[in-house]
Amino acid sequence: MQTSKKLLSMSLALAMVLMSGCGGGGKDNSSSPTADKASTTVSESATPDDEQFINSFVASDPQTLDPQKGSDVYGNTIIVNTFEPLLRLKEKGDATEIVNAAAEDYTISDDGLTYTFTLRDGLKWDDGKDLTAKDYEYGIKRTADPNTGAESAFLLAPIKNFSKVNNPDTNTPIDELGVKAIDDKTLEITLEEPTEYFIRLVPFRVMCPQRQDIIEKYGDTYGSEAEGFVGCGPYKLTSWVHNSQLELEKSDTYWNKDNVKNDKVTIKVLGDINARMNSFQAKEVDRISTNKEEWNMVFDKDENVKGTKVSVPAIDYMILNHNDKLLSNAKIRQALNLALDRQAFNDTFFKGKNTNADFWVPPSIDLYGTNFRKAAGDPLENLRANTKQTPKDLFIEGMKELGLGDDPSTVTIDFICVTDPEVKKYGEFIQQTYKKELGININLEVMEWAILSGRVNSGDFQMGYLAWTADYNDPSAMLSLFLSDANSVNTGWKSEDYDKLVLDAMKEKDQEKALDLYKQAEQLLFDESVIIPVTSAETTNYWQSYLQNVQNNQFDTMGYQGQFTSGRP
């Protein structure tokens, strides 16, 4: 899985807007103090307005709209609406169900290794060209091709020969990947091992179709502008004014266009939290997510606003560069991990309503229908119990091992985060905490997302504040990020023991055995302090009362197509 680094700098709450499968910079995500205001997202008396449009937002300009290359939630918000996967995940009660999209049917072989998808008749791209199984084959193989630099390629790990073709050192031809278009309407995917959760990976961008002629024409610039962007989903991209807004219009060529409920979606780029909240309050944005108490109080009292609490399968965390001399030392990393006062962080920013992230796999993740977090315990407390020294003494011991003396005040660590005022406050808290508990200095640097992502991807950092949202509902969605050949989060850390634990768990059919393997893997992340988890939370989704058919499940991939308005002022 020789992929580029998949990282995102955004808030956990914003990850809830429309897509899963991304991380973030972590802000605005304390749990709601109020009860749900909405028992349903569709009013029984809702009569659609004559004019149908949706006003939405993203918190940052998308990194790219190339389905294969990017991984940020901002781009995903566009891609899920402009490309058609073989299958989609649709909210059903508190869970999701798999629904057919481009594929009208699929079968799974008795041995669980071969998935055969049959495409619908009449599928088209925006420009009228036929959409075929060969486009899906090309798109999936393009994700796996190491030359693409796909940030989420690791999700394709269950596919036969993926580890070989994705590793440039093996020189394995891309055509050996277990993906083949049998004919224009039939796609066959073969796995290495039976993988229970594989079918839930199919809706994600890594398996989107792609136009080879378009890619060859635009090259590396594809997905950076509206010009040359060709999709095949419910909407087509008509405008992209960078750092301002994107516009989508209902596609005339979409196979299910009669069931797309609105004609236009305007997506503003709103980087400031107060700008987002004020836009929602002014009805310039139809939906928002927040758990800042001051805004909860405003929206909970607004009779024209509906809301519901939502569990976020995500973690705010600090990324560490293990290639850095100081941070290559395990005792230094452990000291940083143990010295962080998560409860004080929680109390300061979320009035104690968040969950302290003494773990990496968030509480909303299940394993074969059982809550993983309840079964796996608390790996941070295990680390603390097994560590005899205080965090400061542990830090000094690490300094001595590195030949850096025994005075922590001589140590300065550069710490990067996005230019969001709230996230900057997080950085300042961490700065003050480490000064007090360890006696070290933190040099805080704030920067735009594009700059931060570039620095982390290139390894030009020591520490940073990010967040990660699970792509699918399984512990592997979080734990596979640190496989040695994934490079999905650029820590520079590799472990054969960790690889074996996770890979064995991913193919283990026995629930108890899989649980034990995943539990050991998560504990190893803490024993090595590979990264430093900070907080996990619920958020509160709010929407204008005129907005109907709102999805609130994190894993839903239906996008805007089913939403409509009734009684918009």
Can you walk me through this structure?
The termini are far apart. By secondary structure, the protein is an alpha+beta fold. Strand 6 (179-183) and strand 7 form a beta hairpin. The chain has helices at 73-82, 133-144, 162-165, 212-218, 273-281, 293-300, 330-339, 342-350, 372-376, 379-386, 391-401, 421-437, 449-458, 476-479, 496-507, 511-527; strands spanning 53-58, 87-92, 95-100, 103-108, 114-119, 179-183, 186-190, 235-241, 245-250, 264-269, 287-290, 305-311, 314-320, 355-356, 366-367, 370-371, 412-418, 441-447, 463-469, 531-536, 538-544, 547-548, 564-565. It has a 6-stranded mixed β-sheet with strand order 14-20-13-19-17-18. The chain has a 4-stranded mixed β-sheet with strand order 1-10-9-8, covered by helices on one side.
In summary, what is this structure?
With 569 residues, the protein is α+β, with helices and mostly antiparallel strands.
Write the topology of this structure:
Layout: E1 53-58, H1 73-82, E2 87-92, E3 95-100, E4 103-108, E5 114-119, H2 133-144, H3 162-165, E6 179-183, E7 186-190, H4 212-218, E8 235-241, E9 245-250, E10 264-269, H5 273-281, E11 287-290, H6 293-300, E12 305-311, E13 314-320, H7 330-339, H8 342-350, E14 355-356, E15 366-367, E16 370-371, H9 372-376, H10 379-386, H11 391-401, E17 412-418, H12 421-437, E18 441-447, H13 449-458, E19 463-469, H14 476-479, H15 496-507, H16 511-527, E20 531-536, E21 538-544, E22 547-548, E23 564-565
Helix pairs in contact: 7-11, 10-16, 15-16
